[in-house]
Amino acid sequence: MSHTENNLHVVLGSGPAGTAVATELAHRGHPVRLVDRTGTGPETAGVDRVKGDVASAEGAAAAIRGAGVVYHCVNVAYQLQVEVMPRIQEAVLGAVEAEGARLVVLDTLYPYGETHGEVMTEDTPWRATALKGRMRAELDEKYLAAHREARASVVLGRSADFVGPGVLNSTLGAAVFPGALTGGEVLTLGDIDLPHSYTDIRAVAAGLATLGESPHGDGRVWHLPTAPALTTREVLGMIEDRVGHPLKIVTLDEPRPFGPFDQVFMDAYAEMFYQHTEPQIVSSGAFEAAFRTEPIPMGDTLDATLAWYRGLLAERA
Predict the structure, then answer these.
(1) I need a surface site. Which of 83, 93, 217, 258 has the fewest CB within 10 A?
(2) pLDDT in tens, 285-303
(3) N- to C-terminal Cα distance for the chain?
(4) Is pTM beyond 0.90 here?
């Protein structure tokens, strides 16, 4: 199916990324359908919320019917990913092939595995040894194979750890900002003096929307626009400057429950803890050059995130 400006854009998954992508697409003037398992949630102008379960072939086909571009932003509980994500991929990829739609996939850095501080570019080898890293690499190989074999037009956008308005379940999320604003504990992981990239959720949304509008980017992995890496301690210092008082930083040097992350999550996350004991440095220069864009500066990200969390805390007061 050829892409036109009037084609329906279908976003699968209404977590922070899916919601941000749907909102961005609507702002760009596209007709948007946002699909999740409940079909409920805040209304967004120009976004049609629909109930659907894309873990089955039938559900995925119904969810994307009529789409010109599909955005796969579905995630599942961390401890279920290795089991469930391949099943979702099979259903979504099959539905996209049958519909003739293009597929934009929100991806992670997991396929690279341990980099020992090497700057991650799109040419970095995939050396994952953890179960979730190997699973993600296998999914990505299947996506790219579908493109090479002309079964579907596919493009992947990789992000570092999310940060930004609406982001709760991130190492720079609900374990950090509420404590920073209220004088409570701010929980961090591993060595916070190592450089660590964070990607603004708004840049994730804009980057995926750009890939959805730009078929010439298909058939490969792109790193979504990510601000230059700072150490986590430097980021916390920027937060201190903004809230006007020192943070009560608590650093966990091994995986155990903290903040929004319970024992079940941390048990599943333990194999990925290397991300906090070595530098995590992402370069998005290829995307920035190809699509003439720039990442959102970290200061702007923190301003917007603190404002969002202030509103959240006020609602809960």
Answers:
(1) 83
(2) 999 999 999 999 999 999 9
(3) 50
(4) yes
pLDDT digits (tens, 9 = 90+) for 92-124: 999 999 999 999 999 999 999 999 999 999 999
pLDDT digits (tens, 9 = 90+) for 48-86: 999 999 999 999 999 999 999 999 999 988 888 999 999
Residues 153, 104: Cα–Cα separation, whole Å: 9
Cα–Cα dist 210/168, whole Å: 25
Using CA atoms, how far apart are residues 84 and 268, in angstroms rounded to an integer? 14
- The DSSP secondary-structure symbol of 261 reads B
Fold annotation for 162-197+228-281+297-316:
UDP-galactose 4-epimerase; domain 1 (3.90.25)
Alpha-helical segments (H) within the chain: 16-27, 57-64, 81-99, 131-148, 177-182, 201-213, 232-243, 263-269, 285-291, 298-316
Tell me how far apart the alpha carbons of residues 285 and 122 are, in angstroms, rounded to a whole number.
10
Is the separation of the CB atoms in 260 and 174 below 8 Å?
yes
As a dihedral over the C-alpha atoms of residue 256, residue 257, residue 261, residue 262, rounded to 10 degrees, the angle is 120
The CATH label, of 3.30.70.2190, 3.40.50.10860, 3.40.50.720, 3.40.630.30, for the domain at 8-160+198-223 is 3.40.50.720
DSSP per-residue letters across 112-148: G---TTPPB-TTS-----SHHHHHHHHHHHHHHHHHH
**Which residues contact residue 258 at a Cβ distance below 8 angstroms, ignoring those fewer than 6 apart?**
175, 187, 189, 250, 252, 266
Is residue 152 within 8 Å of residue 98, measured between CB atoms? no
